[in-house]
Amino acid sequence: MKKKKFRFQLGAFLMFLAFGGLFLLLFGRIVYIQITGEAEGKVMSSLAEAKYARESLLQADRGTIVDRNGELIASDTLSYRLVAILSEDATPKGSKRDRHVVDYEKTAEILAEYIPLEKSFILDHMLEYSESGKYQVEFGKAGRDLSHETVAALKKLELPGLEFVEDKKRFYPNGVFASYLVGFTLREEDEDKNVHTVGKMGLEATYNKELSGTDGKVEFDSDHWGFVLPKSEKLIQPAQDGFEIQLTLDKTIQNFVEDAMKRVDDEYSPDKMLAVVVNPKTGEILAMSQRPAFNPSNREGLTANWLNDAIENTVEPGSTMKMFTIAAAIEEKKWDPMAYFKSGQYTIYDKTIRDVNRTGWGTITFLEGFQRSSNVSMAYLLERIGDQKFLEYIKGFGFGQKTGISLPKEVPGIILDKNPSERLTTTYGQGSTVTPLQMLQAATAIANDGIMMQPYVIDKITNPNTDEIVQDEKPIEKGSPISAETAKEVREILASTVTSDHGTGRRFAIDGYTVAGKTGTAEIPGASGGYLAGGSNYLYSFLGMVPAEDPELLSYIIVQHPKLKAGQAGSEPVSKLFNSIMENSLKYMNIVPEGIETKETVHLGDFTGKSSEEAISLLAKDGFTPVVIGDGEVINSQYPKEGVRLAEGTVVILKSEGPISLPDFTGWSKKMVLSYKMLSGLDIRINGNGYVTSQGLSAGSVIGPEDPVVINLQEPSEIYKEVEIDEEEESIVGG
């Protein structure tokens, strides 16, 4: 048999070398990676982690804004953001359920029924993003802040590719409510495309940093589709919620203001209105509102004016300024109410000023001149005081200076004092400008026995993550421009403008309460110089306090250019505001009208630190009705505080430790229930306003913070109406 001769195959050999070399190179590469754990200078474990590690944002809740009793004014609430997934890669191969939009036409048609966009826009928007290779698309403002009801309805339709991302929405439960003070927020994207709530106006903007908080995050491992891998560790960095801002506002009094302003606005359609209510003993602002106003939830009603008129705008106050002129005269012992002067007109150098009726009322007393709001009487008073001394008092009352309230953009106003005529017109509030808040601050000196209090609206700011109080504002005295005796005499004179037959404040009388105050009718500067004239082209106002003997409430009301009917006076819309707000607020505060309650009042003592038994005994001895929270042996706190004057039978709440037994709330005012809720920490849910008519759990029930208690209240008018109906039914049945 013939042997086969070996033939060297060069081509095969070269192929062997090539493939063998590649194999050795690949094998060496694998061995190198396994030994070093690196490829191309990068750690493979880090690359894998970057590919499969995921990070989820934990959004911080924006801080809440609440009133003095903890009632909600603004908070974050849950909403949803609509996302349409366009990429087919979102649906895993073999999946029975599509995770991307399949039918663009149908999806656009249905979405147009639920979000404020046209079908054609939605369709074009999705097609544009799809054709450019985008993975998903959103729909701007129209696709944000979706309610739970909208999302639930869309989910029922099971449209492929629609995702609903949980989001935050700012919630303002009270609608038009102190809107220029509270402000509003908008949702804005940052550089990293994260959407945040940003304050754009009012407290929301001023305290945006404190309210915003800090977002947290969750880090976890996931598969290719983004699902969390089993047994993967989660690293959680908790979100830090924004601070809570508690205001001095009282939600109930603020609602009285808003309701009254709506009624007057509907009836008189003024260009502007302003109402501020203050506690003159502390300077706490209990209510603040203006018109035009807006709903912060949707900005409906917001105009080009973004200014808080109480502090960022000035006015010529008109005759309300006269109360400070007369205060200066009394303090300087230049006031003689029974002295006479010739009313009508007064000339100083080349300037003549006139009374409102131009011819005056003949020769009258200074007291009558003040009651009739005579400008000329102020001129003669200025002669007695001296214009430089008068300016010292004006500055002493805080005019021409900022009050120092914790709100931005406060303006100081301008006191004209360059020549004698300017100093003269300032005595009756013309020419010089002030802010409404300055007027209120100055008036606290008259209401508070000579001690002037700085107005403030922030009660405290609390970090909810640690319960630390980061800002705690207290009453601040701003000096004593007049004595207590002068303040008392000024209040008596101011009260006479309401009670006198020729007083300009007769419309401001409130049944059962003595009102002290001063009306104002100021000219309005025109856009092209000079003043507007004729008709109701005036700024009508009233600066008043109640009760006159010891004021608990102080209010400044402004109505500019109301649409008056023939025969109507400018003080009519102002009095409708003032009277409604003050009467409702006084009754809400349990300040009893004269003639209704004749019981003597007693100063409440301090019972904190005393034993429960001793405190109850002492209160009963003084004629009070003690209600104890808890069954502890020692009293930790009380409401009302020490020093308040209370009538016999008034409920006094004492707080101790231990289990809580519910009292009988029947007949309690809303304020008392809120105080009990605050001291007890119980979950008390209040329905209605006025006084308690029923409660969900009976008196004596032992409960804890986790047990909700529903308390029903009714206005006195409604309770009385029901009693009348019951009596009528009885008579019909018995008849």
TrEMBL record:
Q: Where are the transmembrane segments?
A: none
A Pfam family hit: Transpeptidase
Q: Where in the cell is it found?
A: Membrane
Q: SUPFAM superfamilies this protein is in? A: beta-lactamase/transpeptidase-like, Penicillin binding protein dimerisation domain, Penicillin-binding protein 2x (pbp-2x), c-terminal domain
Q: Which PANTHER family match?
A: PENICILLIN-BINDING PROTEIN 2B, PEPTIDOGLYCAN D,D-TRANSPEPTIDASE
Family according to the record = Belongs to the transpeptidase family.
* Protein name in UniProt: Penicillin-binding protein
Protein source organism: Sporosarcina siberiensis
